[in-house]
Amino acid sequence: MSNSPAPSAVGLEVPDFSLPATGGLTFQLAAQRGKPLVIYFYPKDSTPGCTTEAQQFRDLHAEFAAAGGSVWGVSRDGIKSHENFKTKLGLPFELLSDAEETACRLFDVIKLKNMYGKQVKGIERSTFLIDRDGRLAREWRGVKADGHAAEVLAALKSL
Hints:
Number of domains: 1
Distance between the termini: 28 Å
Order of helices and strands: EEEHHEHEHEEEEH
CATH architecture: 3-Layer(aba) Sandwich
CATH superfamily: Glutaredoxin
CATH topology: Glutaredoxin
Helix content: 25-40%
Strand content: 25-35%
Strand order of the largest sheet: 5-4-3-8-9
Radius of gyration: 15 Å
Structural class: alpha/beta
């Protein structure tokens, strides 16, 4: 794992990383070269906003695939939680477990949030579109879940 800072600008190569994924897989960014990919970070499995976002990526999954892209969801939840979330929603893509915040730090998505009057550290809902050469093509930070997947799909189609 590289200790390089988060990609700060569109056009920069995203440093390689690997994370455990659902389906008994290990995700390795370098192995994804040659096709565009969408990596979306979300706060927590089975919460309302995260469920909406996952369902919309699910519902558009065939269009993402037809455009040549793959979709990967990332949160700090463990694989067991991810498997349950994936099964419950019928997600056709894999979820990555980032319990150690490896990718979260790489993409700079851990932020202080206010929850019930307390400051807590959590994932800011963010999505990254990486082109077939492993370069950051587009980023969305602090997004609202509803409608976001369609916006990402439009950007993928424009690559």
